[in-house]
Amino acid sequence: MNHEAHMEEAIALAKEAAETGEVPVGCVIVDGSGAVIGRGRNRREIDKQAAAHAEMIAIEEACHTLGDWRLQDCTLYVTLEPCPMCAGAIINARISKVFFGARDSSIGACGSVINLFMERFGHEPELVGGLLQETCGTLLSSFFKSLRES
Questions:
Q1: For the segment 9-47, what is each residue's pLDDT rounded down to a tens digit?
Q2: What is the distance in angstroms between the CA of the first residue and the CA of the last residue of the chain?
Q3: Which of 65, 80, 67 is nearest to 27 (CA)?
Q4: How many alpha carbons lie under 13 Å from residue 71 in its C-beta half-sphere?
C-alpha cells in the first residue's frame, strides 16, 4: 500500500478545508485492497457542529460505503493527530491502522497528551505518527499564522 500517496490525498483535503476557513485537517480511509472508501475534511465552522472533524466525516462515509460500522480491515490517514473524540470513534469503528502527520500538543490522543490506543478498550489500532509530518505541520502553522495576521 502506498502510504504517502494516501496521505497526499488527505493533505489535498486539508488544503480544501483551509480554503473555506476551516482548520486544515484532511482524512482518507482505505480498505484492505487500498481503495479509498471514505474522505473527510474539517467542517466545524461550515456545519456549526463540534463533531465535524475530518476523521468523523471520513468514518461516516466509509461505514456508508461498506454498509457496516465495522471498519476492521481499513487504514485511516489523517494530517493531524486525532483528538480524544476521533480516537474513540476509530476504536469503536475497529479501524486496523492509523497514520497521522503532525502531532497535536494541545489535544492529541495518540501520544502527545494521551494515547487512547494503549488503553484497555478491547481494540488497539496499529499507530504510525509522523507520515509527511513536515508538510502537514507547515500547512497547519501557515494557516494559524495567517489567522493571527488578519
A1: 999 999 999 999 999 999 999 999 999 999 999 999 999
A2: 41
A3: 80
A4: 32
Which one of the listed residues 9, 55, 134, 149 is annotated catalytic? 55
- Reading the block at residue 34, the C-alpha cell is 487500498
**Catalytic status, residue 16:** no
